[in-house]
Amino acid sequence: MKRTVRTDLRLLLPEVPDARDACVERLRSQLGQQTGILNAHVVPGESPDTALLCIHYDGDVLGLPDVQRMAERAGATVTRQLWLQAFGD
Predict the structure, then answer these.
(1) Which residues contact 7 (CB under 8 A, 6 or more apart)?
(2) Cα(56)–Cα(59) distance, integer angstroms
(3) Can you tell me the distance from the alpha carbon of 63 to that of 5, in angstroms, rounded to the nearest whole number?
(4) Is residue 23 scored above 70 in pLDDT?
(5) Which one of 7, 24, 35, 67 has the fewest beta carbons within 10 angstroms of its own beta carbon?
(6) What is the largest CA-CA distance in the chain?
């Protein structure tokens, strides 16, 4: 069964200034490679300066806690890559 969860993009990528940043595409790409994730895309938040990551997933394969963990891990990986590019090892 297809399910959807939305998460504030700032929680996953706190260092990213807006949803058009290349890091957001990296996050979407990493999530898209995970088994059970059907799609991930950005939707506008409640205010003009916010955005939400909308994740569609197969509820028969993954539970909500699994999807949240995957999103948090992917966000941490992208953030770590960003820091390594900026500051080196």
Answers:
(1) 52, 53, 55, 68, 71
(2) 9
(3) 11
(4) yes
(5) 35
(6) 43
pTM recorded for the entire structure: 0.89
For the chain, where are the E strands, in sequence order? 2-8, 37-44, 51-58
How much is the pLDDT for 64? 97
Whole-angstrom distance, CA of residue 86 vs CA of residue 1 = 41
Q: Which of 69, 70, 76 is nearest to 23 (CA)?
A: 76
- Please, what's the b/e burial string for 28-41 (b: 16 or more CB within 10 A of its CB; e: otherwise)? bebbeebeebeebe
Spatial distance between the Cα atoms of 4 and 68, rounded to a whole number of angstroms? 11
Q: What is the pLDDT of residues 39-86, one digit of tens each?
A: 999 999 888 888 999 999 999 999 999 999 999 999 999 998 877 877
- Which is nearest to 24 in space by CA: 4, 51, 3? 51
